[in-house]
Amino acid sequence: MAKTGPALSLSKGFTLIEIVLALGLIVFVAGFALTIDYQRYQKQSLKTEQQTIITLLQTARSQAINNIGQSSHGLVIYPPDEPQNYVLFTGTDYSTSDPTKNQIIESGYNWDLASTSLSQVIFNQLSGDVNTAGEIILIDPVSNNTSTISVNHEGAINW
To answer: What does the pLDDT look like over 67-115, one tens digit per residue?
Structure first.
């Protein structure tokens, strides 16, 4: 008596169409996730730059209030002689400050400064007040995201 078993099936595995569809779906999902992640990276980079500028403004104001060097202190953003940098300086104006006392901080992200923004903030000695109040508006040139820091006449920094 001959044994009969299950019939051999020749359709084991995946077809080429199933593999292509699965790979296509994986690529689509990965591409979507990378796009969302890149946008989040851009926003976070701009926020990090904003925090850097806020910290530098607070440092300059603190130095002015504490009368370090018996002088006013300030921050200039992207000066002509130091593009893509921030400079903490001592004195009533960056152009007349002593370059040997300047502290240069490199920008960590390539962003633009709005044309209406303050590019220099000077905190008066002892009071910490500023003569020119206004806003510093950072613009991401790729995504057009913006971030605003305001400084009032009393030297208060808001973001």
So the answer is: 999 999 999 999 999 888 999 999 999 999 999 999 999 998 888 999 9
- Which residue range is the domain that position 81 belongs to? 19-158
- Paired residues of 136 in beta bridges: 149
Total count of domains within the chain? 1
Q: Is residue 13 part of a domain?
A: no
**Structural domain includes residue 26:** yes
In a domain, 152, yes or no: yes
Residue 43 belongs to some domain of the structure: yes
CATH number, domain of 33, equals: 3.55.40.10
62-67 own/partner pairs: CB under 8 Å, 24+ apart: 63/88, 63/90, 63/123, 64/123, 64/124, 64/125, 64/126, 64/127, 64/128, 64/155, 65/123, 65/126, 65/127, 65/128, 67/125, 67/126
pLDDT digits (tens, 9 = 90+) for 28-79: 888 887 777 777 888 888 999 999 999 999 999 999 999 999 999 999 999 9
